[in-house]
Amino acid sequence: MTAKTFSQVQYDADDNAKNKVIDFLTQHWGMTNVRINPNQYGIDLLADDRGKPTGIEVEVKHNWNQLHFPYQKVHFSARKTKFLDECPDVYFVMLSDDRTRMIATHGDNFQDARLVRKSTKWTSQEWFIQVDLGKFKLYNL
After folding, report:
1. pTM of the shown model
2. Which end of the chain is more exposed for a tag (fewer CB within 10 A), N or C?
3. How many domains does the structure of the chain reveal?
């Protein structure tokens, strides 16, 4: 199994997605104090949700270029499950390549999710958490 190695170029290219999510969470979900986590190895965003500390993990799905999410299953790297223990309240969000759509789910939906192995453009036989698309809500940004 190979895990994806860190790429500063890809990180920088996707970094603007965090700002889109910050704007959305502030304007539409009423979260306050939404900010980028200063710990670059921690969950992407930190916020207060009605007084409760909340973490938000942000990903960009580069092959999502349609109106609706193109798959029935959503995959997040299994290494990101550590965020479920780091924050009392966690959301996982995935943005379309053009940053105009987002799917989001609460971390509670990861509790019964399956672990699957799959190869990607960047990895070979990496472990992923597989969550049914029905556990996510679609938003227009």
Report:
1. 0.89
2. N
3. 1
